[in-house]
Structure to design on (184 residues):
């Protein structure tokens, strides 16, 4: 496992219910990670004490985004709305990891919802195709017009319209997030 991810998980562990959390995204796929993606079975699987160690960058109904100031990465924590954690397997590092079928189903859903107005990063199509090959499932057919690389915001004045205010998960100043990640 990437040393930054291992360090991040070590600091995250005291603040989460490990039986209700699964690794997904690039780490689960075995790609070089630029961030850490996790699924949580329920909102209370992550304790507010996490705010003492990590910055809260976004807090939405189905997403909490944390920033690890040591590893200099962001952690996307998604609410598991499909029950995928139930199929997760224990990985070599003692963390639950989403299985390939659930990862592919998620990627296919994401690809299927992509539009010109709401494009997706090409990495999701690459992941879906690699998983489909591995699982001997049909390759997704994707209109190239719905693909656009993700560009992160660098304007610290912009406020996220989806963020909610939560006293137990206070949002960090955007300038602090920018200083660590180079984007907000």
């Amino acid at each position: 496992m990437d040393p930054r991810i291992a360090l991040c998980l070590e600091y995250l562990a005291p603040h989460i219910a490990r039986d209700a959390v699964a690794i997904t995204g690039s780490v689960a796929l075995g790609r070089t990670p630029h961030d850490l993606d996790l699924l949580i079975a329920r909102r209370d699987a992550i304790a507010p004490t996490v705010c003492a160690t990590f910055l809260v960058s976004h807090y939405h109904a189905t997403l909490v985004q944390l920033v690890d100031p040591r590893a200099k990465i962001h952690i996307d924590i998604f609410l598991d709305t499909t029950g995928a954690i139930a199929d997760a397997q224990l990985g070599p590092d003692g963390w639950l990891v989403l299985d390939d079928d659930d990862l592919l189903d998620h990627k296919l859903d994401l690809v299927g919802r992509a539009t010109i107005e709401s494009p997706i990063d090409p990495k999701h199509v690459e992941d879906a195709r690699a998983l489909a090959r591995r699982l001997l499932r049909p390759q997704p057919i994707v209109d190239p017009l719905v693909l656009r690389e993700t560009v992160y915001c660098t304007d610290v004045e912009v406020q996220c319209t989806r963020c909610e205010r939560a006293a137990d998960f206070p949002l960090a100043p955007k300038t602090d997030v920018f200083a660590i990640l180079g984007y907000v």
Notes: The mean pLDDT is 92. DSSP finds five helices and seven strands in the chain. The helical segments are 3-12, 25-29, 100-113, 122-135, 174-181.
